[in-house]
Amino acid sequence: MSLRINDPAPDFVAETTHGTISFHDWLAGSWGVIFSHPKDFTPVCTTELGRMAHLEPEFAKRGVKVIGLSVDPVERHALWAADIAETQGARPGFPMIGDPTLAVAKLYDMLPAGAGDSAEGRSAADNQTVRHVFVIGPDLKIKLMIAYPMTTGRNFHEILRVIDSLQLTARHRVATPADWTAGKDVFIAGSVSDEEAARLYPEGWSAPKPYLRIVAQPGTAGR
Hints:
- It is a single chain.
- This protein is α+β, with helices and mostly antiparallel strands.
- It has helices at 23-27, 43-61, 74-88, 103-107, 156-171, 194-200, and strands at 13-16, 19-22, 31-37, 64-70, 96-98, 132-136, 142-147, 174-175, 186-188, 214-215.
- It contains 6 helices and 10 strands; from the N terminus they run E-E-H-E-H-E-H-E-H-E-E-H-E-E-H-E.
């Protein structure tokens, strides 16, 4: 199954380091992030899990639940967590899905259907495509997908930046420009006519081109 942005996020039941979860029930109307790993005890992923452990409060402030996934069994995740705490200075407090049958990896189109049904004997290179980030909205639809190569660590501040944009544009009919960060100016969405924009923004906007209608971010500077 090929997944795209705005597709429903596939539901699943899986064992995690926090017990058995049903994914949609676990989200319970919240935003969510799944970030996946090809194997436990790998160097880049160890730093990523440590970084997420440090930054999890930032995700929580935004109402975002975090869950990790690795194709190894949950029992190995617990051992790996000790290494992460020792080397990265923080132990993951979020659940980690065990996916030894590769079921969730295949459900989320990270491995082909012909990959088999066991992680046993598979190397990290065999699972190298299991390095994705999915952001799921409260409507249980996929809002973001990013795939990373094995040798490049993820930038979790970028994931937070995108979540800030997704949440802002879900509340207001605006779009965010390149390199935008929270608090900076935004565009009035193209779906908003000038007549409607005049009602939404009675103080007006700047427009170097008719399609570039720039306003202060809603919620800042008195908006």
